[in-house]
Amino acid sequence: MLKINNLHAGVEGKEILKGINIEVNAGEVHAIMGPNGSGKSTLSSVIAGKEEFEVTEGNILFQGEDVEEFSPEERAHKGIFLSFQYPVEIPGVSVTNFMKTAINETRKAQGLEEMPANEMLKKIREKSELLEIDRKFLSRSLNEGFSGGEKKRNEIFQMAMLEPKLAILDETDSGLDIDALRIVSNGVNRLRSKDNAVVVITHYQRLLDYIVPDFVHVLLDGKIVKSGGAELAHELEEKGYDWIKQEKVSN
Q1: Measuring CA to CA, which of 57, 192, 199, 246 is 20 to 30 A from 49?
Q2: Which pTM value belongs to this model?
Q3: CA nearest 167: which of 148, 193, 142?
Q4: Is 211 within 8 Å of 30 (Cβ atoms)?
Q5: Rounded to an integer, what distance in angstroms lies between the CA atom of residue 45 and that of residue 33?
Q6: pLDDT digit string (tens) for 118-153?
Q7: Per-residue 3-state assignment (H helix, E strand, C coil) for 1-14
Q8: 179: burial class by Cβ within 10 Å (0-12, 13-18, 19+)?
Q9: Which UniProt keywords apply (predicted)?
């Protein structure tokens, strides 16, 4: 699904990613953990194609295709979804209209007709019920006046509607109370399948109690310095990151 080879990237001449290698297969959930400033959000932004970041070496293959020349929109149409750490407010555009536009633009890029209105409404109803979203919420302006939990739940609602091949969740757990965390995690788990993949970026092990990863990678100073199974997240919760830094120095 996703293969990253020796990825070096930065912004305004400052190198942030210093040789990332990772492979994510369909059906897998990968967690990327690391302290502040280690490059986690930069990695998600580079995969999604945010234009302020410059790739200086290496490549990103999505379903075997090099995506370097693709715009963020083209990557989204091919099935890459990024859930933002800080979703932006778009006054005057309702959640429902935003989703209709996003879905139909993707269908258009794939050479398909617009989704019939009755099918769209059925899908909106199903996915909002899945994420315990109140119907009134769907007529509100996108993210305007939303609480932190509502914004994050809305991001997962977008993911549910768009059904991406690869979903990248950038610190979806930040600012969530336990109830919102459970609802968001349940939504992600019910959307998991053998045909899609999820990359979860987080500081905290608590999210991984709900969305159990197949692999955990530790990012430090722009490099993946350790990988393991779900138990690695528990070890990080217990010991912090210092032992990995010391291990890295001694190696």
Answers
A1: 192
A2: 0.87
A3: 193
A4: no
A5: 15
A6: 999 999 989 888 888 888 888 898 888 887 778 888
A7: CEEEEEEEEEECCE
A8: exposed
A9: ATP-binding, Nucleotide-binding
Cβ proximity of 109 and 72 under 8 Å: no
Residue type at 100 in one-letter notation: K
Query: Could you state, in order of their start, the residue ranges of all structural domains in the chain?
Result: 2-250
Name every residue whose Cβ is closer than 8 Å to that of residue 86 and which is 6 or more positions away in sequence: none
Handedness of CA 211, 213, 216, 220 (dihedral sign): negative
Residues 83, 173: contact at Cβ < 8 Å?
no
Rg (CA), the chain: 18
**Virtual torsion, Cα 41, 188, 108, 150, nearest 10 deg:** -70
Side chain identity, residue 94: S
**Size (the chain), residues:** 251
pLDDT in tens, 176-202: 778 778 877 888 888 888 999 999 988
Are the C-beta atoms of 206 and 234 separated by less than 8 Å?
no
- Fold (topology level) of 2-250: Rossmann fold (3.40.50)
CA-based nearest residue to 129, from 121, 140, 117 = 121
Which residue in this structure is represented by tokens 């099918």? Answer: 119
75 and 62 Cβ atoms separated by less than 8 Å = yes
